[in-house]
Input
Amino acid sequence: MLYRPFGSTGIDVSAIGFGGMRFEFIDDEEACASLVKSAHERGINYFDTAPAYFEGRSEERFGLAFSEMKKTRAERPFYVSSKTTAAEPDQVRRDLERSLERMGLDALDFYYVWWVAHPKSYFDRKARGALEAFTRLKEEGLIKHVVLSSHMSGVESEEVLADYPFEGVLIGYSAMNFTYRQRTLEAAARGGRGVVVMNPLGGGIIPQHVERFDFLRTRDDESVVEASLRFLLATPEIQVVLVGLGNQQHLEEAISAVDGFEGVSEAQMARIRERLVTSFDQMCTGCGYCDTCPEDLPIPRLMQSFNERLFSDEPKKVINALRFAHGIYPEGHHVDQCTECGQCEEVCTQSLPIIGRLKLIQHEIEQHG
Output
């Protein structure tokens, strides 16, 4: 296992983290706990969950494993993160205390201001006292490090990261959307913050379309999944690649990606990045130039969500991307407010049919949202 310093915290974290939202057999307590303990035995020391994962059962399954792992924690440390979307200080505290109780812990190593989709959301929570609550809980020793979970563009993330001394940031990042997220990585690195990336396999799209992503491989003996993870491992700003581990096979694949990691040369990385842009020329690369909509529609995030449509005919794929990958609630963003002014298409570096795609997104929201 590779270990990397997490920003300026002084903590060395495993390059692969255990994401707790994809347990395959969530009703089997012992099987879930066994998977967590197996991951720890294989060298993983970063464990991430949230109260919403399986309605709290993810935290409970981690807690069952931690009850054993704590016995040797001094010799084999591990670090735990959870999250809250709460804005009111009392609710922030209640969410934290409930998470600690479920996991049988005295404190969380990392606690995320969760699911920040827009600076407005962040500053609203701040105005209602959320950040003061996080600071106070850290002073009390219940939180060791305050971190940010961002679903924002790079420019938006920079604005939020400049406002509070977050010690790390969690973002969705994969070979599919690296251009959209790269600026966030760079802002975090400049501030000495740790970086954790989630959805490293594009929400499952990459392993479902291995033939289309075969060019990610830099070695004959690696799978596309391994190559996708190694693409991220070779990105210097990233400390933890968070993989949703549902079963032992998932664990073995993730461990294999690290154990066989020999680095990716700059030339190979440049080739891969160029191929991603040219091979998926109809896929929005998230450059952000279109983020000037007069109606304030979040065009870059909408187009990133539409990428799902290029790989699947299932409308709900786009809806799920809107909600979960990009933090957009379809009912809160009225795509039908588009006036077809064409400003976004004029500045699009890929000449994408943005207006037509917005119409299709609106149709799918009406039918399936």
Summary: Residues 207 and 311 are 12 Å apart (CA to CA).
